[in-house]
Amino acid sequence: MYQIKNFQDNDDVKTLDSLGPFSIIEYQRDLSVSPSSAMIAYYSSHMNVRKRQVICDLSKGNVTVQAGAMQWMVGNVNATTGIKGVGDLFGKAIRGKVTGESAIKPEYTGDGTLVLEPTYKHVILMDAADWNGSVVLDDGLFLACDAKLKHKAVMRSNFSSAVAGGEGLFNLSLNGSGVFCIESNVPKEELVEITLQNDVLKVDGNFAIAWSNSLEFTVERSGKSLVGSAASGEGLVNVYRGTGRVLLAPIAKMPIV
After folding, report:
1. Is the pTM of this model over 0.70?
2. Residue pLDDT, tens place only, 195-229
3. Which domain holds residue 37?
4. Backbone angles phi, psi at 168, to 5 degrees
5. Among the four 47, 70, 96, 203, which has the fewest Cβ within 10 Å?
6. Cβ neighbours of residue 104 under 8 Å, at least 6 residues apart?
7. Could you tell me which residues come within 8 angstroms of residue 65 by beta carbon, excluding any fewer than 6 positions away?
8. Phi, psi of 22 (to 5 degrees)
9. Per-residue model confidence as pLDDT tens digits over 28-85
């Protein structure tokens, strides 16, 4: 039996969202400051630059998290590698190599509480059911998910997606039923959602953070010819074709210090 005080009940802490086993809290002010950093902390809080954390209630479901993301845990919590055998280990190692994600993501079971490391990025909760059970994530966004979700490496539709687009050839795909968390440079309120019905979306840059696995993803010239692409000034664009959803950020990925 355990009790947690001065955490979620702290008047400086606000619960932003809860879904499945996950809750997101946000610190309204950074009180752990020195005279030299007080001004930065003050203006940061007013510009929505705040620390956020994910709390996992394991009594509501087992969770898989990005390697190194755990900060503390209390109660009946067991950490495993989530590996089912040699073949599973080999598959995860290959998937981690091609997607750039950690090869082994710890799985936490039990009925206690798990708290992840704080981040200044925006943490967004999503339900795989809203993506017809299969969603593809841009590199480096995955933070945690319901352990029931299966992880797969999804290859781009053509080799030019990696070579011409300057990106990896594979992305991480989450499949099945459950909730997942991603870390985004922009808040959920600023994400643009586009739903395609046998149509095409062309994006000049790396702005998509998630898209339906049902979509065909390629990198193509913006025009039908090299001359047309040069005339438009755009060159190569990311193309999402078919039926499904795409989430777009208003800015390209950038590091958050």
Report:
1. yes
2. 999 999 999 988 999 999 999 998 888 766 544 44
3. 13-248
4. -70, 160
5. 47
6. 67, 81, 82, 83, 89, 92, 96
7. 56, 105, 106, 108, 114, 116, 143, 144
8. -110, 145
9. 999 899 999 999 999 999 999 999 999 999 999 999 999 999 999 999 999 998 655 4
92: pLDDT strictly greater than 80: no
CB 123 within 8 A of CB 131: no
Sheet holding 13-19, edge to edge: 13-19, 22-27, 52-57, 113-116, 70-74
* 6 domain-assigned: no
Q: Residue 23 and residue 217: Cα distance in Å, rounded? A: 32
Looking at the chain, the whole-number percentage of residues with pLDDT higher than 70 is 80
- Residue 104 has a pLDDT of 77
| pLDDT for residue 150 is more than 90 | yes
Q: Could you tell me if residue 174 is inside a domain?
A: yes
- Token digits for 218? 């390629």
Query: Residue 121 sits in a domain of what CATH number?
Result: 3.60.160.10
Domain assignment of residue 1, yes or no? no
Is residue 52 assigned to a domain? yes
The arrangement of strands across the sheet holding 63-65 comes to 77-80, 107-110, 63-65, 142-146, 179-184, 122-127
Residue 154 pLDDT greater than 90, yes or no: no
